[in-house]
Amino acid sequence: MEPGLRACYIMLFALGLAAAPPRQKGDVPIPHLEKRGAATQLIVDGKPMLLLAGELGNNTSSSLEYMQPIWPRLAKMNLNTVLAPVAWDWIEPEEGRFDFRVVDGLIQEARRHNLRLVFLWFGAWKDSISCYAPVWVKQDQARFPRVPDKSGKSMEVLSVLDDATLNADTKAYRALMRHLREVDGQTHSVLMMQVLNEVGFLGDSRERSQAADQAFARAVPEELMNYIQNHKDTLVPEFRKVWEAGGFRTSGTWEGVFGEGPATDDIFMAWFFARYTGRLAEAGKAEYPLPTFVDAGLIDPRRPNPGEYPSGGPLPHLFDLWRAAAPAVDLYSPDIWSGGFTDWCARYAVEGNPLFIPEIRGDAATAANVFYAVGQHKAMGFSPFSVETLQAQVAEQLTRGYELLSQLAPLILESQAKGAIAGVILGPQDPARKIALGDYTLDVSYARGRGGPPAAPTAAQPVDYASAVILATAPDEYVVAGRGLTIVFGSGVPGPPLVGLARVVEGSYSKGQWAPGRMLSGDDTGHGRNLRLPFGDRYTVLRVQLYRYR
Predict the structure, then answer these.
(1) Are 77 and 449 in contact (CB under 8 A)?
(2) Boundary-marking domain end, from 374, 406, 438
(3) How many domains, in total, are found in the chain?
């Protein structure tokens, strides 16, 4: 596009949005991550924001016309943010000719429906395959070499070691970030960028191209060796164990330092994928420094080997490789599809890596999962995949959960920063959980009817998950929001051994302000023995005052 025409186009785009109510006045910093007490939070227009999000299907956002009936549905689901793919092929169909009409249309419609955006860059790889690269890249295998499979046949996978691929991908991503600064640098509809999607190598433990074989035979880069020596005592245990098995060598080939086998192949691929991704992120931030993250295709216990999962991706056991090679990437995020939700949350919510779940399978546990992640691991956001096609029952439950969390968001964010928050999720067969929060312990169990445990789930009646977010708001005071749980308080510090419910009030929050409703006692509190958050069509919010006695 000619420079003069480009400037005119940007001006017309801005004028076309003039009817939308302004989000801000004055010069407000762009969205950024900020450490606030015990939590790292996303700051938007000067305030922390909890992302109650949904990710669109991989190709949904490629057509503005296709999106038209979807936008109102997303707004009605109480989302505040939409994760939308933007593919390299969509914005650079011919080399050097950029077309941002889809990007601009997504921004315009998001503003019109009072939603924010996180863009997912589908560049050289998406799910480890190069299917979203432009046609002109796919057709020029001499310039953009592909990786051979085990039989020597070319795959639709670009080599991560190829500079021509990196340079072309970077040019496109940099142009996108420059354009976002021009059209959204003051309005901040776009909050974050995902740099590549579920990157890694599938089908083998490492790339077997000629360039990869040559790199594998060379010495481990000095930059990596310096990093792991300087961080020897704080390395991820799985990675440190591999290095230790080789005698903590400080130089040598990849196999000389880390030994022979798939684990070394995994480490090798992590270094090169992280280096590629880091350079891409760094180039984009030079144009417009939005927070960046990269997501991981996780390890399925049924397929536990590198190459069965995306070898070299931003997985917990490879965090040190990514930190060394890609400092411009702000956080690593899990795409959770194969179970183990609470374990994956714990593995990603580590020091220096705030939890953000950009993609998760939509199922009966979806709404309950968000309460747990936000409460127990101070998650900054949560996003079910293909949110526009969720089953009706799942979408309805998520809508109600997001409505409640939206009401509570100011209090949740404040409590995250104070470290005064917890979360719980329980299925009907799960044992009770004991939570220590503030000066008390909480025994939390799945709510049971008088007839005993619920019947086994069926296709027509799936598991009903119980969940809650629990906030210690003041000495002897808690706010509990959720459904399907019974909670008994116990003493957590020295003093009178018994704990009583001084006052229990049912109510709601609006813009962070408490609106009291019924006063609960008697049967509704087990005659003062416990809190009850029943199942049903709605979530319950209780404000509880406690007292100690003998």
Answers:
(1) no
(2) 406
(3) 2
